[in-house]
Structure formats: structure tokens, C-alpha cells
Amino acid sequence: MCKDCGCGTALDHAHGHSHNHPHDHAHVHAHPHVERKTLSLERKVLAENDAQADVNRKWLAAHGVTAINFISSPGSGKTYLLERTLERLRRRVSCAVITGDQCTDNDAKRLMGKGAEVRQIETINSCHLDAARVGALLPEVAGKGVKLLFIENIGNLVCPAAFDLGENFKVALLSTTEGEDKPVKYPTLFSLAPVVILTKMDLAPHLDWSLAKCREYLRQIRPGVYVFELSAKTGQGMDAWIEYLETMSL
Amino acid sequence: MHEMAIAMALIEQAEKVAVEQKAHAIAGITVVVGRLSGTDPDALKAVFELAAEESLAVGATLTIEMVDGRQLFIKAMDVDVEE
């Protein structure tokens, strides 16, 4: 062993190393030198998903598809609204649907037979759709002249908001039975959605629910948010919604 | 709760950085979490250790800095590099 630096003696030096003492013999270091480095970064945690979302966005743009990501609580009426929407747009605008649920293809069954390609994603243990799962379905579901793609996300006001799917925009649904203050309770989603649909408006007269209060909460979280008030059941407000979608598909 | 997905993505990105830096271990990760990012810091901490198993970040400490906004990014990493 070298008496000055404690390194083992051998014939070669495995790596560059500065010594402050003269050496008249060659040797190898037997001990590894481990250095702890602190790296300063700004690396997005969801970089992988965001990159796939960009791939999806480019695919959609190249194929002339407008994709809308529908997010809401379970039971707010996403599927029911989509059923009525597909019926109204049938033979006028070519539509497709990707619908996500933890389990079952119940939603896909409800949406089929209305002139649109429909695919179900069962996420099993995941609480949200991600860009990879949606991207894998795009060519088969939205490849043939589709103008509007509805992505019905998992019913959840928190997790789906964090994952960009490459959609053109998000639409948040809020049913009257959920109360007025969901926008301030779940600001992440409502700050990201430029369009909000208030559903089950036909029930409003039977509930302690104030449209003025609800709109005020929505404005607090996203000033300038575009709000539709409708009931897919009675058809109230559906004309404006359908007209809006037709404009989107031009 | 999608924090497991977030934690897995976090480990994936951290390992990419470590490989770029030729590091053989990750000792610590500092993550900036926006209050509007949809990520719960306690839930992320709870699943981080499990997500780090069998990765270069096994046993690493996770430090979370909360900020306003939607950010969700790795701000710093302590890595071990063999000379």
C-alpha cells in the first residue's frame, strides 16, 4: 500500500486522480471514490405523458379532429348527455367516442348504435385516462373522417385534471344535484376547463340550488368561463350546445 | 388517488436524469408541487418509497416544496457518482 495516500499498489492507474505527492511507482486504487452531487433541474414529473399528449395533439390536428375531454364526478350525466348529443349530430357531424371507466363496458354499450365509433377503456385500478391509452386508440376510432372526438374521462373531479390527453380542450360537467360550490372545492379542474355544462337543469326547481351562486363560484375560479345550462332529459338548452359543437367541427 | 402514477413518473424521470449524469444511485429528490397541480403531497410521500423500490432511487429521501400554481417538476436531485 502506498504510505502517503493509502492506495493499493499495482501496475496501472485506473483513473485520473491528482496527487499532491511525488510517485515513483505505479498503482491502482482499490477503493471506489463516490461523490455526491446536487443537481439543479426543472424536469416535469409528467414529461412522459406530456410528450405523448403532444403526439396525440399533432395526430388530431393532422386528421382534422377536434377532441373534447369530458370530466366530471360520477353520475353527473356525461354518458346521458353524450347519448343525446350523438343522436342529434347523427348524419350531420361525424363523431367518435372514447369512454373510460374503472370497470365494465356499460357506457360503450349505451353509446353504440348512434352512428359513432365507440371504444371503451377499462382502467381497472387507475382513476384517470392517460395520453398513452388514448393515443393507442386514435387511429382506429378517429381515423376515418371523424370531426368530433368525445373523450369521456373517468368520473372523478381530481385525478383526470392532472393528465393532458392531447385534447383541444376540457369540458367540465356539473350537475345541479351536486350543489353550487364544486368549482371552489375542486379548483384544479374548473380552472382548466374553458367550458362548463350545468346538467340536470330540469331538477333545479326541486333543489335548494342557486344558479346565480353557482355561476359566481365558476367565475371566481375561471373568469370568462363559457357556461351551458341544459337538461339532456327534457332537451332544454340542447340546441345551443349542439350548435356550438357544429361550429367546433367546421 | 393518482399519486402512485405520479410517483412512478417521478422515479422514471429521476432515473433518466441519473443515467444522463452517469450516477449509480439517487439519494434525494426535491419536487415542486403546485397547489393546483392536482397532486396531494401526503399521498405522494406515502407511495414514494414503494415506487422507488428496485429503482436507482431506492431509499432516497423525498422533499416536497409546495407553491401556488400548477407546477409539478423535479427541482433538485442528490446523486452518487463513482469517480
Helix-strand blueprint:
The complex is a heterodimer of chains A (250) and B (83).
Chain A: E1 34-44, H1 47-62, E2 66-71, H2 78-89, E3 95-101, H3 106-111, E4 117-122, H4 131-142, E5 148-152, E6 169-175, H5 182-185, H6 187-192, E7 195-199, H7 211-221, E8 226-229, H8 238-248
Parallel strand pairs in A: 2-5, 2-6, 3-4, 3-5, 6-7, 7-8
Helix pairs in contact in A: 1-4
Chain B: H1 3-20, E1 25-34, H2 41-52, E2 61-67, E3 72-82
Helix pairs in contact in B: 1-2
Q: What would your notes on this structure say?
A:
The complex is a heterodimer of chains A (250) and B (83). By secondary structure, chain A is an alpha/beta fold. Chain A folds into 2 domains: 37 residues, no CATH class; 201 residues, Rossmann fold, CATH 3.40.50. In chain A, 31% of the residues lie in helices and 20% in strands. Chain A contains 8 helices and 8 strands. Chain A has a 7-stranded parallel β-sheet with strand order 4-3-5-2-6-7-8, with helices on both faces. Chain A is elongated, with a radius of gyration of 28 Å. The N terminus of chain A is likely disordered. The N and C termini of chain B lie far apart (41 Å). Chain B has a single domain, classed as hypothetical protein PF0899 fold. Chain B is globular, with a radius of gyration of 12 Å. The model of chain B has no long low-confidence stretch (mean pLDDT 94). In chain B, helix 1 crosses helix 2. Chain B is α+β, with helices and mostly antiparallel strands. The chains are: A alpha/beta (250), B alpha+beta (83). At the A-B interface, strand 1, helix 1 and helix 6 of A face helix 1 and strand 3 of B. Strand 1 of chain A pairs antiparallel with strand 3 of chain B, so a sheet runs across the interface.
Average of pLDDT of chain B: 94
Question: CATH superfamily of the largest domain in chain A, please?
Answer: P-loop containing nucleotide triphosphate hydrolases
Q: What does the largest sheet of chain B look like? A: 3 strands, mixed
Secondary structure tally: strands of chain B: 3
Q: Give the count of structural domains of chain A.
A: 2
CATH topology of the largest domain in chain A: Rossmann fold
C-alpha Rg of chain B (nearest Å) = 12 Å
Helical region count of chain B? Answer: 2
Approximately how much beta-strand content do the residues of chain A carry?
15-25%
